[in-house]
Each structure stands twice: as structure tokens, then as C-alpha cells.
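Q: What would this chain look like folded?
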Amino acid sequence: MPMTLKVYEVNRTGTVRVLRDEVEVIPFERPEFSHEFPACECPNCAEGAL
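A: My prediction, written as C-alpha cells:
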């Protein structure tokens, strides 16, 4: 299922600046390993508190 992606930034005064116009993209079924976040190493997660 295609989706759209638009990249923009908003400054402190609320002004919006488009960095990349809207384009249609096809998402990955599963992100490549390099795009995944690493496992959390904080003390709470390491102890299983969450």
C-alpha cells in the first residue's frame, strides 16, 4: 500500500519550510537491520522494569 511522505521543518515562530515536496513511497515490509533502533541499554530496561 503506497503512502506519501513530505519533509518539512517548523521554526520557533511557527513558520513552516518545506525541505522536500510530497512524494509517493512504498514502505518496506520489514525495515532493514541498519534502520532498526538498537536494543535499549538503560538501567530500567536492563533490569526488566518496563
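The chain has a mean pLDDT of 85.
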